[in-house]
Amino acid sequence: MMNKIAESQKKTAELWKWSASDLARGIRTKEISSREAVISCLNRIEQVNPKLNAIVEVLTEEALKAADDADRAVSNGQALGPLHGVPVATKINTDQAGHVTTDGVPAFKNNMAKTDGAPIANLRKAGAVFIGRTNVPAFSLRWFSSNNLYGKTLNPWDSGRTPGGSSGGSASAVASGMVPIAHGNDLGGSIRYPAYASGIVGIRPTLGRVPNESGPPGASHLERSLSFQTMSVHGPLARNVADLRLALTSMSNDQPSDPFHSQVPFIGEPLEKPIKVGLLRDVGIAQSTVEVNQALDKAANYLRNAGYIVEEVELPLLAEAHKLWLLLVLEDLRDKKSEMEKLGGDEIGLCIQYYLEVGKEIWGETTLEKFKHGYTRRFTLMAKLQQFLQEYPLLLLPNSSEQAFKHNEDIESLDRHRRLLAAQWPMLSIPVLGFPAMSVPVSIDNGLPSGVQLLGRRFREDTILDAAEVIEAQTDTLTPIDPLFN
């Protein structure tokens, strides 16, 4: 009898290791309770978050109350959502009712949200139990999750490396087992890069798949700019593809606040087989490291093992799209630089300064004609990529030309910033074009995660997830992990 009790206690204590899918099934069938799952994750947060600073607001009492409500709903035979009772973390730059939306900016520390933003509302409707709010860089505009309000988030693999940004807190929390699923958003890699740097999966859906916010946090004078309207999306991060699929479908329900949202079926027509995959190593902007190319080779072989045809391709339009990001997005930031520096601090100010200097090196003085032509050209490139994907429905490419950056490399010097922007061509080019893409871990090299990126046709996230599951099935499990430092 004592052995059974001990086994039960051990099982409950280790629920933080379970996948979201297993937690949801266990709660629904009464094998476990939502309260047990939440307590296990809260204990894990207490254990590792002081080392990582991934979750900047822990919602202990609120989460326990929500868990008890979830358990009562199960007992009462009520209808249950796909994430019913599952602990989830949300990003501090998106409204959650009753909590501040700071975006890592001290001036916004009292910016209390009265209602849920659209993606948060959908997660709540799916039954998620919100357990914490995750860290970001100031204004969510760097690949390094550090700010003057909450401090710096660390990568559980290496304290000297970034966990990515801007959803770095979400990635670090998922990778270290604080939560099985976390919410993120992506304008220039803010879901995909943290997932890559932290050894987990993260998907940037098609623009319109997940309903978006009407505007950024803070003052109304920082309303959502044109590039944010046309390139920024919300999506999930998780430790496995099944959980990512579960979270993405949960986040994709209709919300009237987003005029771009489209109720497109999540499962499309089967692709003609054998499915062809284009393998793209670089576009002439930055040479990939050995580790990056090895990850591409491994993923290509895994797909071939499953019957995919993988062929090396060239796709220069992504180089042009990368260049366009440095025009269209940075021009939107130009007139906000002084205010962002004033409100967000020196780090974000220096980062934006370097952004703009590199943009000027490429584009010269920006004019209205250049800006207008940039959006015209964007449409042409989108059409060309869509045509390419008729022959190759999937594209296999890097996340970055190198592994996770050292902390604050983007503000070390203009030269290093320039090199980082080049290394991140796979992060920046895709938002310009609006196609879905996801990061998939493959291996550990030099003590850091290595992985690949998969891109697919618009609103065909299902095909990307299917291919990612093939890679995952032939890859060793990387997370959750204990922080690999004291």
What's a concise summary of this model?
By secondary structure, the protein is of the alpha/beta class. The chain is 44% helix and 13% strand.
What does this structure look like?
- The chain has 486 residues and is an alpha/beta fold.
- The chain has one domain (14-473): Amidase signature (AS) enzymes (Alpha-Beta Complex), CATH 3.90.1300.
- Helix content is 44%, strand content 13%.
- The chain has an eleven-stranded mixed β-sheet, sandwiched between helices.
- Helix 5 (118-125) links the parallel strand 2 and strand 3 (129-134).
- The radius of gyration is 21 Å and the shape is globular.
- The chain starts with a helix and ends in a 13-residue tail after the last helix.
Topology:
Blueprint: H1 2-13, H2 20-28, H3 34-52, E1 55-58, H4 60-75, E2 87-91, H5 118-125, E3 129-134, E4 146-147, E5 151-152, H6 168-175, E6 181-186, H7 192-198, E7 201-204, H8 226-231, E8 233-238, H9 241-251, E9 276-279, H10 290-305, E10 309-312, H11 317-334, H12 337-344, H13 346-363, H14 368-391, E11 394-397, H15 414-423, H16 425-433, E12 437-445, E13 448-456, H17 461-473
Parallel strand pairs: 2-3, 2-6, 9-10, 9-11
Antiparallel strand pairs: 1-3, 4-5, 6-8, 7-8, 7-12, 11-13, 12-13
